[in-house]
């Protein structure tokens, strides 16, 4: 599998016979680097409805026929707008031909572009061929991460670090420890001035806890 950081909280996971987009904020994202036409998209996941996460999900679903998996209310909105969607909720594993996904709580808010409530915001735990990838979405540090660490110990965690709307770097170090992960990819920072973060400091603090910081620049990939 190959993990590509698109920028902000958007990722592309290249899997056998397909590709998974997470929070595909590409159009209007000043940091985005991704060529949508040369990468196959078979699934789209959304953590919540805010514009910097919903992004291009609806038009991409229409053109690629990729199915959007999101919390029930948000999925209904996507269906209403003509996308292929599957409404889910916090609970057990959702099975796919490449593995599974599990929606876990995030502490944030969630609306769709017209201001309607979009259901609860989520973090998503993927299990792709036995590799567990946790995408925290937008959230503050919260004790659900301890539970996730105790039960699932993700191999890789994508954590927001930009503060203001989410955790900051210090909280994200605690989150990484609670999650029991050994690899962290920071996200949701430096896209706009309000969410600037000192990644070198974050890297050092993680290193002191024997956790590797993989600070992918937009457009860069990691082979897993
Ligand atoms: Ni948000
Ligand atoms: Mn956000």
Please explain how this structure is put together.
By secondary structure, the protein is of the alpha/beta class. The protein has a single domain, classed as Metallo-beta-lactamase, Chain A, CATH 3.60.15. 22% of the residues lie in helices and 29% in strands. It contains 6 helices and 14 strands. It has helices spanning 51-54, 57-64, 72-80, 144-151, 169-179, 199-208, and strands at 2-7, 10-15, 18-22, 43-45, 67-71, 85-88, 94-96, 99-105, 122-128, 131-135, 156-160, 183-187, 212-213, 221-223. The strands form 2 sheets. Strands 6-5-4-3-2-1-14 form a 7-stranded mixed sheet. A 7-stranded mixed sheet has the order 7-8-9-10-11-12-13. Helix 4 (144-151) packs parallel to helix 5 and helix 5 (169-179) runs parallel beside helix 6 (199-208). The longest helix is centred in the C-terminal third of the chain and has 11 residues, at 169-179. The model has no long low-confidence stretch (mean pLDDT 97). Nickel (II) ion binds at residues 48, 50, 53, 108, 138, 165. Residues 48, 50, 53, 108, 138, 165 line the site of nickel (II) ion.
